[in-house]
Amino acid sequence: MKEPRGQNEKDHQWWLERGVALRAFFYVFGTHLFAGFVWLLFYLGGHAHK
To answer: What is the pTM of this model?
Structure first.
């Protein structure tokens, strides 16, 4: 039995919204991870014995 057309479009829209939210989360997480790594490099470089 086929689902009503409106329900199928709702499911598709939900998956698109979920994909955008997941991508945004990973971009924000990845950016913070990269920034933390750069900060760590500067911190270690500033405290290195010269």
So the answer is: 0.66
